[in-house]
Design a protein that fits this description.
By secondary structure, the protein is mostly beta strands. The chain is built from one helix and nine strands; from the N terminus they run H-E-E-E-E-E-E-E-E-E. It is elongated, with a radius of gyration of 21 Å. The termini are far apart.
């Protein structure tokens, strides 16, 4: 009986610490909510012809991922003559390529939690970090221009 009481006491202390002090890396294996850039093979473009395609992101293990604020950036060898713009959880690539070749670049994503998350509550959010995971990710993509 004493052993059961000690285990329950320990469980209450651990649960209280998580609720009072925010997220812990220890919980990463329980519910790993994190941003994700979906894998995709981008369409092949043609020199001088308007190109349009996109990459989409989401928040893994959060059914309300449309409430987050997504911020994309591009680095690396992006095709000359093209640009990118963001709309919600998608980044669109468009323009008329001015050079042919294979262009590999990195799409980086940072997400901010929804406004209804209260950083003072600890359990749902720890500062500007998504609870149970990171708030950034990146993935490489290639556009081939013929």
């Amino acid at each position: 009986m004493k052993n059961i009481i000690r285990k329950m006491y320990l469980l209450v202390i651990v649960a209280s610490a998580f609720l009072l002090f925010g997220c812990s890396e220890l919980l990463d294996c329980v519910a790993n909510a994190r941003p994700n850039i979906k894998s995709k093979v981008l369409s092949i473009g043609t020199f001088g012809i308007t190109y349009n395609d996109f990459v989409e992101a989401d928040i893994i293990n959060d059914s309300d991922d449309n409430s987050y604020y997504y911020s994309f950036s591009i680095s690396g060898n992006f095709p000359p003559g093209m640009s990118y713009n963001q709309q919600g959880n998608k980044v669109f690539f468009n323009g008329s390529p001015t050079q042919s070749g294979s262009f590999t670049f990195k799409v980086s994503l940072t997400v901010d939690p929804p406004e209804y998350y209260d950083p003072n509550q600890g359990f749902f959010e720890d500062g500007n970090r998504i609870c149970f995971g990171n708030d950034t990710t990146a993935k490489e993509f290639t556009i081939i221009i013929q």
